[in-house]
Amino acid sequence: MKWSRDIFTLLRWGTWFYVACVLLFLITPLLVVIPAAFSDSTLLQFPPEHWSTRWFEKYLSSPDWMVATWNSFKVAVAVSILATSLGLTSAIVLVRFRFIGRNALRAVILAPLIVPVIVTAVAIYYFILQIGWAGNLWALILSHTVVTYPYATVVISSALAEFDQRLEDAAVGLGASRVRAFFEVSLPIIRPAVIVSFLFAFLLSLDEVVITIFVSGPETMTLSRRLWDGVRFELEPTIAAVSTCLIVTSSVIVLAAELLRHFLMGRVKVSARR
Amino acid sequence: MAESLSSRRSTEKLSLGRFPQTNNRSATKPEVSAVHRVGASIALSNVVKRYGTFTAVSRLSLAIEAGEFVSFLGPSGSGKTTSLLMVAGFIIPTEGAILLGNQDITRLPPHRRNIGMVYQNYALFPHMTVFKNVAFPLRMRRLGKEAIRARVRQALELVQLQDMADRYPLQLSGGQQQRVALARALVFEPPLLLMDEPLGALDKKLREELQGEIKRIQRKIRSTVIYVTHDQDEALSMSDRVVVMKDGQIEQVGSPKELYETPRTRFVAGFLGSANFLDATLVSTGDISVARTEHGTVVKTSGRTQACVGSRVTLAVRPERVAVTLTQVPDNTGYQGRVVDANYFGTTQRYEIRLDNGEILLANRTNIGDPLIEPSSTVFASWRPEDVWIIPAAGNG
Amino acid sequence: MHAQAENSYSLRQSSGLTDFLLARLGFVTLITPGAVFLIICFIIPVALLLQQSFFDPDFTFDFYRKAFSSPVYLSVFKVSFEIALVSTALSLLASYPLAFALIIAPTRLRALMLGLILLPFWTNILIRCYAWMLVLQTKGMVNSVLTSSGILSAPAELVFNTTGVLIGMTHYLIPINTLMLYSSMKGIDLQLLNAAKGLGADPLRAFVNVFFPLSLPALKASAVLVFVIALGFFVTPALLGGRGDITVAMLISSYFSELLNWGFGSALATLLLIFTAALLILYYSFQRDAQDRRAK
Predict the structure, then answer these.
(1) Inter-helix orientation angle A137-162/A266-273, to 10°
(2) Fewer CB within 10 A of the end CB, N or C, for chain A?
(3) A118 interaction partners in chain C (CB closer than 8 Å)
(4) How many angstroms away from the CA of C26 is the closest CA of chain B?
(5) What is the pLDDT of residues C208-246, one digit of tens each?
(6) Comparing C-alpha atoms, which of C192, C293, C282, C255 is closest to residue C49?
(7) Model ipTM?
(8) A185 touches chain B (CB under 8 A)
């Protein structure tokens, strides 16, 4: 009896230790990149011997990194707006209307999540060359929207499906037209999901690599594209500094999105259950 | 009939005006009062709702007077909520017409109907304060800011929530939320107020308190009310008339007293309280008819019947009209039997009695301090002929 | 005066026809932007790609014949499958216990763990590859620890070969895999484990006989989905792999961006699409299993 209890205790601690190792493995890249960015040396040493912020200074003073950053930001904002608006309209169609081909529509919207990104990337690349849009920032925006729009649709549809339709009916019963009721009641209540979808689209666009390296050209250099070239050919610590900035950006946005999801959506859920 | 027609016509004018004449002195600052108003009449004629082959409501015809409080009572699936939603406009009838005042609203979309509605789950907007919730229908009607403020204050006073205006719905108790929902449904002075099991989510004590409150408000504003419920006590205590529904059809319409004391069908009798049903054969008819049950009990009844002597009928008598005594009653009309089961229910004592001929009867006795009669005691069950009514064979469904 | 007051209070009247049109137009207005966008930016490009793989410039199966006849291309497919299979297996080994730990962890610990999973999940894939290069290279962190402690006499080759690809891929797949497993495991009633223990099963048996079978459909489904993602993967093998680690995705990429043989590239892309579709059919059948089981 005593012996078997020991075995299970050992097993339990063994499992937790294993889990801790996996988690350590998961964040190893972050634990390495961030100190590397603050290293004084040109060589990639770990841990660094001297600390400095010279690589951040180099990043911030380099015109081509700055152009890339600005382009990435412009693209990401445009993609968030576009993907969220399209996601909102499609979510309403999918959740609120019953029509023939509804499942087919849903499948087509979600397809870019499932089709290997490389296939989507070369397809769009080829198409862009055909219509002569190469090097156009809009080509990048639209192609990023292809892969973020499904996420936006999923996030907003699930909020809309959870939303208590009777609230909108009540607004209609009180004298609001359907459209007015949607804007006065439904939209404010699902607003957290819309914001979350916006933030996620922003991040997805910022982190998109495969499509970006095909669609972006020298005139439309973005961070991902610049990193791709940098990682393959340079390996200098400026990349670590850029990476650190990107990691901080993502963390802040993800944290904001999670908090929004947790607090605001929780509030609405409670009310929908009543 | 003539009376009902004339009263309907008189409300038409009012419902068209929607503003009582006295309040229209000034267009910029309407002094609207929630007191002097009358609701509109509403008529459903041959309304049918089918879903594919399933008929949710079949051939429903009903005329409701202006200012009347009518309950739709029935088990779930009886079509009462479907009927209500057709009046509200959320469901379009397959056939038939609905008239509010003299206006045909059958196909009018809900937001143009001007009907107030209170939902079982309250449907309060969680992102708006109580004030904004109540102001919502007024904003939709493009009322001025000042007018909205005045009317919302009035409506909240009516439901005694004037201090809660800045709270959010989730900060209120269930009963308070229900009052807000009521204020919101009343604030635009709808000629008709629909309530879909509004108290269903509340506990018994609060429910009774709010029943009284709803009645008080309804009397004050004299609006027409259709109230859907599956709670028979609620329907009986609040309504001017009750519509009992079953399987998408009206089973019986009448005042609470009519329905309770002379239900036309076994379903109505059973749904509104309980009853002893005795299958019997008519022996003689007249002012006092006589029938003989299958067990041989001879029962006198003053209930009216068109059935002729020898036909089979069902007799019904409410358990609380069955007197239980330990000794024979003075005129020797008590039936002798034994107590099979005795239960204590606080305000009443309930007995199951087996008469010597095998007939089983339920009897309720008001608890006025008499000790509970022990099972297997010999007792006498008796009732007056006017406590027994006859359900024709057709009403046995 | 009177009419004015009435207007301010009553609802604007209009015919039912307006409402009817509004409802219809509403549907059309809502469905159009998404549909037009998808058709122009996704369906037409993919259709053109498929079409491209059959024309040179006349209709032909040559590209497909070439893909299947040359041992070079077959070995690329083989390598892709192997890498996908091994990295899927490794990520499952890591993800399953992690997902289970998430389920049983107290709220605060769970939030911390989810944070540690989401952080790499939302980190740009290029940054992750870059970091692995720093960690795994000959003078990197791992090698310096191993050589200075005397475990290894010479630094091991850990990156720019298959090992590097597998580490990078597994790292990429674990968060996805864990989140999928976690979301379906949440539906399993943990009371059942206690019930089993109450009936005399020891903790290990309770897990093996109760929890594991219940989580199996989710495990299968997520394995297939992760395999699909791994199969089409491009960035990690391209950055962390060596000469022998050419995957289908890399081959497709090179035919489009370097060799400019679009017809053959399209044929390879189409083949990848077909494999993916076949695997997804498998995935949906697993999903249906999982749902059936839950329904029971």
Answers:
(1) 30
(2) N
(3) 232, 234, 249, 252-253, 269, 272
(4) 16
(5) 888 888 888 888 888 988 999 999 888 899 888 888 788
(6) C255
(7) 0.87
(8) yes
